[in-house]
Amino acid sequence: MRFTEHELTAAVTGVAKTVMATQDKDVRKGRRDIDEAWNSLSRYERYQLMSGLGDQVLPVLISLPDVEVEAGTRPTFTDEQIVAAVEERLGDERGIRRKALVKARTALVQVALSFVPPRADPDALTVPDHL
């Protein structure tokens, strides 16, 4: 699948915020907003979180099959397509560890896809006259 840089950034940021929300007790209990918790992290802490998750999610997103995406919609993939892309990128893991990794990474990729913004209409792009 050919994602834009903006779409991939939104996907990884969404996954990072979701993972952070599951680990932050105040966010889980509703005492603090996820965006407030995200903004309280330093740039380096955000980078570390996004880097680790990006290493797991980005190769799978890139290896998803090409699909036609209409303007104003998000790309959609079947569970089988996502699992196949995850398994293709796993490597030599075997047994129960492999099963756990497949389930976890599949869930991460599904979360990432939910944060991909709808595709813009290329015909609606306007160029200012001064350019």
Structural overview:
The protein is mainly alpha-helical and 131 residues long. The chain has one domain. It is 63% helix and 0% strand. The model has no long low-confidence stretch (mean pLDDT 89).
Outline, from the CA principal axes? globular
N-to-C CA distance: 31 Å
Average pLDDT taken over every residue: 89
| Unreliable sequence segments | none
Query: Any idea what the radius of gyration is?
Result: 17 Å
Query: What is the number of beta strands?
Result: 0
Domain module count: 1
Could you provide a short overview of the structure?
The protein is mostly helical and 131 residues long. Helix content is 63%, strand content 0%. Helix 1 packs across helix 3.
